[in-house]
UniProtKB/TrEMBL annotation:
The keyword Transport applies. GO terms for biological process: cellular response to lithium ion. Pfam families: Na_sulph_symp. Residues 193-206 have a biased composition (Basic and acidic residues). Residues 179-224 are annotated as: Disordered. This is Citrate transporter-like domain-containing protein. GO terms for molecular function: alpha-ketoglutarate transmembrane transporter activity; fumarate transmembrane transporter activity; sodium:dicarboxylate symporter activity; succinate transmembrane transporter activity. It comes from Takifugu bimaculatus. It is found in: Membrane.
């Protein structure tokens, strides 16, 4: 038995090597028994699928397998496979990532998020709605992961302040009640039913010391039960708010073509399978199709989370009436966080202008109902200028525009204490290299290569 456990442990520790070697050998009969292009392509897809599912090799490395397998099995030429890794869809994806990196580098996304939250308010339902709107909006332009990573700490900070403020208010109330017994009696009298008068009379007949001890015990018990109720309330609210950020980040990514990777993959596949589609899927057409669906999903998700974690007492959740002390304290936390960002710098303004200009150019390139600027200037006979062209053009401006306005007095000192003679640009290649998810770009290319191989070999037609 001991020997069997050791063998199992050894197999588990070396599972990646076993899968890497065993998978091609196990499915080798498929191309040997059926030496047709369809079987060979299916063999390559099975290997890549299992490698991807088990992650026995890095995902990006597995995505490069078509460069090796397709030429060696006679499915496609090496140069044809390699072209698939940098298609126009990949250029659009790279351009969108460069914009997202610039926005994150200069903290523009945090300023936008806090600004919207300050505008909406901190009441429970409004807070839930505010975080969902902000998360979905940011996720339309930057990655879902980055949006969630930024919004969750802000949500936790606001909830912690709300919780501490309410707990402190209760503590002050009970302390005041202990110092002034008539205050406690007056406060509790309004909550008691008239039928309890007999119990009160019995308590009055008890010795003063015993009545005082019982009052203190009742006060401590009420304080403890109230504290537990508040703890449960904020645990439930934290769950709901955390889920709202995650859900809305995923929902928001569906609204724009660059919002999430699957949208780019779909565009690439459509352009590959239907080369004469004349760019039927572009930024404007996708937004017109997906944005209403995003709004609908966001509303339904908000209603569901409202029901699950806040209930349907909308009057209480929306906090009709004046602002309470805890509302003002939570609002103060967000306002202080916003003030800590300082005034908008030249770099933030520049990034915002480039971002807005990029979105405008995307929407007006080929809106569909009228001729766009690209159709009038460049795409009269064929689609020469695409959304990827616009994305790369605007992204290049980040490496050209300085992060500070030219001044005569210099730009201060760098980390090494040397005087800065010229300002750095909005983006540097070092920053891009550190933050750019190159593995995702290779994954996109691997998917396009697989699709092209399936088409060339006839496997897609046979399976269809």
């Amino acid at each position: 038995m001991e020997g069997f456990k050791k063998v199992c442990k050894w197999l588990w520790y070396h599972k990646n090597y076993i899968i890497i070697i065993g998978t091609p050998l196990a499915f080798l009969p498929l191309p040997l028994v059926y030496p047709y292009p369809q079987a060979k392509c299916g063999y390559a897809i099975i290997i890549m699928a299992l490698y991807w599912c088990t992650e026995c090799m890095p995902l990006a490395v597995t995505a490069l397998l078509p460069v090796v397998l397709f030429p060696m099995m006679g499915i496609m030429k090496a140069e044809q496979v390699s072209i698939e890794y940098l298609k126009d869809s990949n250029m659009l994806f790279i351009g969108g990532l460069l914009v997202a990196i610039a926005v994150e580098t200069w903290n523009l996304h945090k300023r936008i998020a806090l600004g919207i939250l300050l505008l909406i308010g901190v009441r429970p339902s409004l807070l839930l709605m505010g975080f969902m709107i902000v998360s979905s909006f940011l996720s339309m332009w930057i990655s879902n992961t980055a949006t969630t990573a930024m919004m969750l700490p802000i949500a936790n900070a606001v909830l912690e302040q709300l919780k501490e403020t309410e707990l402190q208010a209760d503590e002050d109330y009970y302390n005041k009640a202990e110092d002034n017994p008539s205050f406690e009696q007056e406060a509790t009298q309004t909550q008691q039913d008239r039928s309890e008068k007999n119990d009160i009379q019995l308590e009055d007949r008890q010795p003063p010391a015993q009545a005082a001890d019982e009052n203190r015990w009742n006060s401590a018990s009420q304080r403890e039960s109230r504290r537990k109720a508040l703890e449960e309330k904020y645990v439930r609210l934290t769950k709901g708010l955390s889920l709202s950020v995650c859900y809305s980040a995923s929902i928001g990514g569906t609204a724009t073509l660059t919002g999430t990777t699957p949208n780019i993959i779909l565009q690439g596949q459509i352009n590959q399978l239907f080369p004469d589609n004349r760019g039927v899927i572009n930024f404007a057409s996708w937004f017109g199709f997906a944005f209403p669906n995003m709004v609908l999903m966001l509303v339904l998700t908000w209603l569901w989370l409202q029901f699950m974690f806040l209930g349907f007492n909308l009057k209480q959740s929306f906090g009709c009436g004046g602002k309470t002390h805890k509302d003002r304290e939570a609002y103060r936390v967000m306002r202080e966080e916003y003030r800590s960002l300082g005034s908008m710098k030249f770099a933030e303004v520049s990034v915002l202008i480039i971002f807005v200009l990029l979105v405008v150019l995307w929407f007006t390139r080929e809106p569909g109902f009228i001729d766009g600027w690209a159709t009038v200037l460049f795409n009269k006979e064929d689609t020469y200028v695409s959304d990827g062209t616009v994305a790369i053009l605007m992204s290049m401006l980040f490496f050209v525009i300085p992060s500070q306005l030219p001044t005569c007095g210099g730009y201060g000192y760098n980390d090494k204490g040397k005087k800065v003679k010229a300002p750095k640009t909005l983006l540097s290649w070092k920053v891009v290299h550190e933050r750019m998810p190159w593995n995702i770009i290779l994954l996109l290319g691997g998917g396009f290569a697989l699709a092209k191989g399936s088409e060339k070999s006839g496997l897609s037609r046979m399976v269809g």
